[in-house]
Amino acid sequence: MIQAAVMTHHAACPKSTVAVAPSEPYVTRGPTKVVVGLYVQGGAFIPNCPQEPRGPEGGTVTLSGRGGKIVARETLAAAGRLFVLPVAPGHYTISAKIANGVRLRPVSVTVRKGYTVRHDLFEDVP
Fold this sequence. Notes:
Elements: E1 26-29, E2 33-36, E3 38-42, E4 59-64, E5 70-76, E6 83-86, E7 90-98, E8 103-111, E9 115-118, E10 121-125
Parallel strand pairs: 2-9, 3-10
Antiparallel strand pairs: 1-9, 2-6, 4-5, 4-7, 7-8
């Protein structure tokens, strides 16, 4: 026998409060730093919820340099803000955990002096 779950309460689907970067990584002239947004995307099984990314979410973002040495870390308890991590020029790995405990796939970025690098991370949900 097959049973189906039916959701009787439809919560409003959250809208993004800060748009995702137009490309990854998105590099602009400015202070030497890394800016990260944590977003949830997908959710075909969430009623009345669009497939585009939603967020940014709260959580923790960590930047590691060569050899895995942590060079910067920021935690945001609330959603709706981007992580901003001033760093020296170099090659870094961005890792993150969304406030709900989900770890996101790490990405690598290169930061040049006098440039800001924005790289968003995404949790894909079915």
